[in-house]
From TrEMBL:
It comes from Streptomyces hiroshimensis. Residues 3-143 form the NADPH-dependent FMN reductase-like domain. The keyword Transport does not apply. Keywords: Flavoprotein, FMN, Oxidoreductase. This is FMN reductase (NADPH).
Length: 177
């Protein structure tokens, strides 16, 4: 059974992005994948900002990445880029921290004008970390995410797209050596 780590880079405890990460983890668990969800905002701030890998919480988070076969990166879009919180976390990983891993980048945002954040900002960082395979990314509009019930309500057309990238991710994990 492959291990998948969903990493949410939102600083908000009521984040739509984080709820999408939960949904992805649940969908992968339906296929009997071992899926965990790391919420970067819950890590201690000072050690995170100082890239203090000796801090127990930071060391455990880095170890979760190391043990994972697949990584799902879920980020809100801020100022036409992925979150600084996610960047700080990715910066503390070893240079080739995603070696032999399959990665699924996801982003949420208020405008389709920011859809390229995935390909022009996040993908190069993921590639520099040595990812074996980066599957097609997905950008979800905030207006399509209704989280008033505590769970993401996603319209059918967005659900189909999300299901499609999850399936691509799953197939890439199965094909991984």
């Amino acid at each position: 059974m492959s291990k998948v780590l969903v990493i949410s880079g939102s600083p908000s405890p009521t984040s739509k992005t984080e709820m999408v990460g939960d949904l992805v983890a649940e969908r992968l668990a339906e296929y009997e994948w071992n899926a965990a969800h790391l919420r970067i905002r819950t890590l201690p701030a000072a050690p995170l900002l100082q890239a203090d890998r000796s801090d127990p919480a930071i060391a455990e988070a880095a170890e979760q990445v190391a043990r994972a076969d697949g990584i799902v990166l879920a980020t809100p879009t801020y100022k036409a880029s992925y979150s600084g919180l996610l960047k700080v976390f990715l910066d503390l990983l070893p240079q080739f921290g995603f070696t032999r891993k399959v990665v699924l980048p996801l982003a949420t945002g208020g405008s389709t004008a920011h859809v390229l954040v995935l390909d022009y900002a996040l993908r190069p960082v993921v590639q520099s970390l040595g990812a074996r395979h980066v599957v097609q990314s997905l950008f979800l509009l905030d207006k399509h995410l209704d989280c008033s019930s505590g769970r993401p309500g996603i319209p059918p057309e967005s659900t189909e797209m999300l299901d499609g990238v999850i399936e691509q991710f799953r197939k890439a994990l199965i094909a991984a050596p």
